[in-house]
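Human:
I keep going back and forth on a fold encoding question. Comparing notes only helps if you start from a blank page. Show me how you would write down a chain together with its backbone fold. Write it directly below this note and I will take it from there.

Assistant:
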Amino acid sequence: MTQDWNPRTKAVHAGIRRSQYGELSEGLFVTQAFVYPTAEAAEARFQGAGDDEFIYARYGNPTNRMFEDRIAALEGTEDAFACTSGMAAVSAALMALTKAGDHVVSSRALFGSCLYVLEEVLARYGVEVTLVDGTDNAAWDAAIRPDTTLVFLESISNPTLEVVDLAHVVDVAHRNGALVVVDNVMATPVFSYATRMGVDLVVYSTTKHVDGQGRMLGGAICGSRALIRGPIETYVKHTGGAINPFAAWTHLKALETLELRVRAQAESTARIAEALVGHPKLSQMRYPTHPTHPQYDVAIAQAPSGGTVLAIEVKGGKDACFKFLNALNLFIISNNFADAKSIATHPATTTHQRLPQDQKDALGISDGLVRISVGLEHPDDLIADLMQALDLI
């Protein structure tokens, strides 16, 4: 029945497990372990726990399972596993599916921590990693080989908002027998097209959008039951990356308003993008579904919205950027995004500060780049704040 519901209905009702008390709000189960009526029952549970049977909090928890079921229902996958953070989810997906001697192909435009896992961690353990320009289909064609094990990418890159032709990459990868793992946070769970395009695992930092209110870290890996309850669960339960039940409960409550929040934020972002394009103090405004975006045709073919984040290039580099940021009144200077509060970030000196300059140059992370995350404030107020700050440069 769940599969027939609209996303907004799934976000409220999917995955609910009620106790004998019949609580209206989902229960928060704060416990390390679980009790068995007999020794025989304990033995049977350890031989193979069912969906509503639990052993230890690191392996599973009723609150966590409700959240996993609900986000899987929203993404349209068979199952999901919830992790302590988005990076815990990314690293688990990559580590659980690779071994020494494997070949991984990834887009180059990635969040700095993702690059670290690929170039430092996987490479340290004998995995060959090839980085490509994710917007160049020919580059994917050349890099993906018959012995490629895994393909990884951000569907919309952070912070430069490059858009990958996901259908093309999935087709090439699957023809070569490789799995495709996508970090989908910028596309959002509301406008996600990853499952429709045939991606094998969809990874989210649920800190963004799902919680979306600056409270909790979290992550989720969505995919087939065979992958999630096979190598993913095995890896996470043995390495300790499972989400805390309180964070899972907070995420459950946040999912109830996810679509309402994200659609409102995305509508505001599109309005702000239109207001900023062509501004004399900017050399570029980038938003995936605005006609000026370099991959606009691909973006609009994949999703009706470009999400809740846009990027601008301020003329005058770092000094001008800092004047602009310091003049903002409504926008908060922070390194988070996809929050109810609007946020401005200077990636070159914060989130991507530790990248070597040649990598920043290759990724387009210049001293003039500002990432703008649009919250739930009225778009007219946000536009006025941006304009007055630009006027002061």
